[in-house]
Amino acid sequence: MKKTIALLTGGTTGEWVISVKSAATIAQNIDTDLYDVYKIMLNDKGWFYEPSDSVKIDIDKNDFSLTLDGRKIKFDGVFIAIHGSPGEDGKLQGYFDMLKIPYTTCDALTSSITMNKGYTKAIVDGIDNLYVAKSIQIFKGGNHNLNQIKQDLKLPYFVKPNSGGSSIGMSKVKHTDDLDVAVEKAFKEDTQVLIEEFVSGREFSIGVYKANGEITVLPTTEVIPANEFFDFEAKYTPGATQEITPGSMSDEEFSRVHQIIKDVYKKLNCRGVVRVDYFLEHETGKFYFIEINTIPGQTATSFIPQQVAAMGISLKEFYTRLMKETLN
Known about the structure:
Elements: E1 3-10, H1 16-29, E2 35-43, E3 46-52, E4 55-58, E5 65-68, E6 71-74, E7 77-80, H2 91-99, H3 108-114, H4 117-124, E8 130-132, E9 135-139, H5 146-152, E10 157-161, E11 171-173, H6 179-187, E12 192-197, E13 201-211, E14 214-217, E15 221-225, H7 232-236, E16 241-244, H8 251-267, E17 273-281, E18 287-293, H9 303-311, H10 315-327
């Protein structure tokens, strides 16, 4: 018997555009022989299902149900494709936990913690063979001293919203005089900002997921941006970045990276598919953790679809594995 799935898209941040594209990819590749899929839009105006243009049917938030042609539809599970709030920060996860409706992502606690880059780095610090760049976390309205930070950290810096995604509000600072402007830009996106020392290395992004009770690491993608760094434009403009999947690593690096990624997945108590971004430092080959994304993009230019293809399985099979793990 088919399961009824809500594919949740949209969101309340600037990433909603990417969420819509991700949901389109997922909708095109979910096995309709196994699942009846209803794409549900969530935004500032409400939660609704759009069966056709200009028709919007509200979701009953009391039990997350949909009434269509007099028939009440309840969902066996939810595929959350919302990047940023409220899909990636634990808010929706807590809601679905209370309703006892299973979902494809990490739980509420892990989702909430991993949205905070500074807190996440503190948790994963200590994993064997994993390094984290020196950084300082500052708060809007706090008593931080940028002049002191300029003395404590070595140039260049990355300045980023602590809970943001898609590199929105992020800057690379090469001169101390530019730090104030970069911090101001990041504070427009978040109340917390992370100022981090730059690591000179090759940049990679790697997906990992759990299905049938087993953690599987996907082939990694090496990222070579044409821009100064892997910013929003580089992420979502076809051709703006050279992306090599699978990325080139030695056998030793391959083995070490896979173990680190599995350890990160376990230590953060992840579920579903997540993506870890990291550097391999040029001189040392050390693994430097950048961040984890618990609802990675699924657009045509996103890494996870590329990595799934490189592993030799279809997106349909991949999404089926995720859904079966969710609904078991």
